Structures are given as structure tokens and as C-alpha cells.
Amino acid sequence: MKLRLLGPRVLVRTDAAPTKTQSGIHLSGTFTHPPAIGTVIAVGTGWKVKNKPNQLIPLNVGERVHFKPYTGQEFEFEGEKLKLLDPNDVMAILEPNVIAETHEA
I need a labelling partner for 25 at 20 to 30 A (CA). Which of 5, 44, 45, 81 fits? Predict the structure, then answer.
């Protein structure tokens, strides 16, 4: 089955919540925050503006994004947990070299 988004929506596959800190301490499920990083797997048609073409969402499928952690609608589709977000809840596009530089510091 295929999923097609309507209007200004972004579908994200969220990363798994960390189970261990960088120093090696194991975290229980009650102490972890929901993941706020994921991969865009679908982008909706954009915003409808009167007498103008749709304003497109500036995201592409496959981009890794950082979004507000407690927003969006979580659901399961074909056995996979996904999150449906408003494009305004996406705060940044993560580029591979930016992530690598952050972990090296």
C-alpha cells in the first residue's frame, strides 16, 4: 500500500531513542526523551494560497531533520512507526558533515 500526503504535511521515520549515554550509562525507558531526529520519507503538496500555485515545502525525501520532540501525530503503517509533522515543526535539516563535526567536538 502507498501513502500519499495531502496539504502541508511531512512524514518522518524517527530514530530510535538512545538506550545508553556517551559515557556508557544505560537508560531505562522512563528516563528517555522521545527522539527528535528522523528521516523524511514523504512530503505533502504544500500550502494552498488563494489565486496562486501551492507554496512548496522546502524538504526532500531522504533528508535527515531535527524537529520539535513533542509535536506531530505518531502512527504505525505497515509495521513501521512513523510521525506525521507540520512543516513548521521541523527546525533544521541535518547535513552529514555537520553531524560528524558535532560528535568530534
Answer: 81
